[in-house]
Amino acid sequence: MQKVKDTTVRVTGHTHAVLSTLAAKSGRSISSIVKDAVEEYRRKCFWEEANAGFQALRDNPEDWEHELQERKLWEQTLADGLEDE
Fold first, then answer.
1. Residues of 37-68 as b/e, b for ≥16 C-beta within 10 angstroms?
2. d(CA 79, CA 27)
3. CA-based, 20 to 30 A from 41: which of 47, 60, 72, 82?
4. What is the structure's pLDDT at 21?
5. Following CA atoms 61, 62, 66, 68 in sequence, which dihedral angle do they give, to the nearest 10 degrees?
């Protein structure tokens, strides 16, 4: 596993004050708050991109029909007689 170096990130005075307040109220470090905020933003971006991709798929009737047909094929595997564990 590759070790990631710590680095400095410049933020505005206002942002630092907000981070300091959040840290004081939560008992967490500013670093952990920034880490969680970045992860939350990464996930938000991921889902926005995924939703945009599905919307583009739905906007193309031929591709969307192909998607629906493929889903029907996959749904048949649920009736394969095998028990879930």
1. eeeeeeeeeeeeeeeeeeeeeeeeeeeeeeee
2. 51
3. 60
4. 98
5. 20
∠ CA 50-15-9 to the nearest 5 degrees? 75
Whole-prediction pTM value?
A: 0.71
DSSP output for 3-65: PPPP------HHHHHHHHHHHHHHT--HHHHHHHHHHHHHHHHHHHHHHHHHHHHHTSHHHHH
pLDDT in tens, 6-34: 899 999 999 999 999 999 999 999 999 99
Select from 43, 41, 23 the least CA-distant residue to 32.
23
26 vs 5, residue with greater confidence: 26
